[in-house]
Amino acid sequence: MNKKFFSFKKACSAKLEQSEMRSEGFSLVELLIVITIIGLLATIILSSISNSRARAYDSKIKQQLNGFRTAAEIYFGNQIPNSYTPATNSCTSGMFNDVSYANGTPGLYIAVGSLPDFTQLFCGATDSAYAVKATLYSGNEYWCVDNKGSSRMIAGTPTSGAFCP
Question: Transmembrane residues, as ranges (predicted)?
Fold first, then answer.
């Protein structure tokens, strides 16, 4: 009986030592699982931030072009006789090239000067109409505003007309 008790005691003490060792830290598998979960959460958060940044850039472009429309109407009202100075697709000629109006308010070229660096502009104007198109953050779509009050997204490369297609 003494022998059985001794072997039972030995087995219990061996299990006790294993459980004491186990409680000292985490296993490699547990650490890898935690690291994987943290990595997945970080990926989800970063992709969400990237989408938010793209929407913010697009909002800024849309707001700037709406402000440009207001500036263009002021420009039209300050011309005698009232007209938009014809311009080519470069946004640096005609009405788009005026740095300031006669009354000292900022011109149209300054109005579009604070767009994000990646923004590409397409402008067109006649005596009675104008349109400005700007690339959105995706690069495949454009936002267009014109003198008729249109303010919309267009796909593909814009034409140089004085209207939003």
Answer: 28-49
Asked whether the whole model's pTM tops 0.85, one would answer no
Q: Is the pLDDT of residue 11 over 90?
A: no
Q: Which of residues 94 and 29 earns the better pLDDT score?
A: 29
pLDDT at position 62 over 80: yes
Question: Beta-carbon neighbour count of residue 106 at 10 Å?
Answer: 14
The residues that bridge with 146 in the sheet, in sequence order, are: 131
* 3-state SS assignment for residue 146: strand
CA distance 136 to 57: 8
CB 112 within 8 A of CB 132: yes
Beta carbons within 10 angstroms of residue 165's beta carbon: 15
Cα separation values, 1 from 7, 15, 83, Å: 10, 21, 114
Which sign does the torsion angle of CA 85, 142, 74, 99 carry? negative
CA distance linking residue 40 with residue 38, whole number of Å = 5
What are the helix and strand counts (H, E) for the chain? 3, 4
Q: Check if the beta carbon of residue 122 is closer than 8 Å to that of residue 130.
A: no
Average per-residue pLDDT for the chain:
76
